[in-house]
Amino acid sequence: MMQNSENSKSEHPEIDLDIHADTAENTKDKPIESEAASQPSLDQLLKEAELKAAEHHDAWLRAKADAENMRKRAQVDVANAHKYAVENFSSELLAVVDSLEAALTVENASVENFKDGMELTHKQLITVFDKFSIKVINPVGEKFDPHQHQAMCTVDSELVPNTVVQVMQKGYRLHDRIIRPALVSVSKTKDT
To answer: What secondary structure letter does DSSP report for 107?
Structure first.
């Protein structure tokens, strides 16, 4: 077998020489230094990648800190909104309190004067309630609604059963939420 490989070399020595010659010519035409100079070294690429990674990490940390600050600010805003939610309502009620105190300072007032003062103060209070969407529930003659009324008793009546006959205490609603149900007596069919 050795002879065959030696024979092949000796039979075509020009082929081997040509291949080696082509390779030698190719390396002479393209200097290795110019290729290395056009491409950055691995160290340079690593440093650039590390710098970019550090920049991205820094940007991420800043974004995370901003998000945390916004969350804390939102918590403070919500806490303040709960704490001072009745501030406007309270300031409107101060006028009503002022009227009541003024009425109490009057000496030698007649019953008529007290009644007039109470009516004016009541109107002030109802105006404040209207301004803040507090509505009175006064359901005389209406059908009993357990979501808005609290039945205190049932009474014999000519009215349709389950109709509010009397309101013992008015109820109040804030927007659509019941603050206090109306205390009522409800009709029932007469026992015969």
So the answer is: S
Q: Which amino acid is residue 55, in one-letter code?
A: E
Extract long-range pairs of 145-149: CB within 8 Å, 24+ residues apart.
147/178, 147/181, 148/173, 148/178, 148/181, 148/182, 149/181, 149/182, 149/183, 149/184, 149/186
List, for residues 135-160, the tens digit of each pLDDT value: 999 999 999 999 999 999 999 988 89
Q: Which of 44, 128, 68 is nearest to 94 (CA)?
A: 128
The whole-angstrom separation of Cα 49 and Cα 42 is 10
Q: How confident is the model at residue 8 (pLDDT cuts 50, 70, 90)?
A: very low
User: pTM of the entire structure?
Assistant: 0.58
Q: What are the tokens at 66? A: 């901003």
